[in-house]
Amino acid sequence: MDLYGRKLVDSAIALIVGHLFLGQAVKSEHKKAIAQRFIDTRLPDLQRDVALICTGDTSAMDQYEVLAGPVPPA
Q1: Is the pTM of this model over 0.90?
Q2: Fewer CB near the terminus (10 Å): N or C of the chain?
Q3: What's phi and psi for 13, nearest 5 deg?
Q4: 39/63 Cα distance (integer angstroms)
Q5: Strand ranges (DSSP E) for the chain?
């Protein structure tokens, strides 16, 4: 869970902000354009992050020493 914590938080923020923008979008064309722009730019990242989270891939942790180097003793 810690491995994907940041992606989960970023995804949740994007959903909440998108929801808030859509709530404001009914008030003016300007706000509708802002909501559309936000959704268009954030949706690909959101889809990518959710797909990665759903894989359950733990290779970054399993191969940590190979990818990042040995952990020095405490």
Answers
A1: no
A2: C
A3: -65, -45
A4: 35
A5: none
Closest of 43, 39, 44, 51 to residue 4, by C-alpha: 51
Nearest Cα residue to 4 out of 41, 54, 45? 54
pLDDT tens digit sequence for 7-60:
999 999 999 999 999 999 999 999 999 999 999 999 999 999 999 999 988 888
CA distances in angstroms from 46 to 8, 9, 18, listed in the order given: 9, 11, 11
Residue bearing tokens 């300007």 = 30
SS3 25: helix
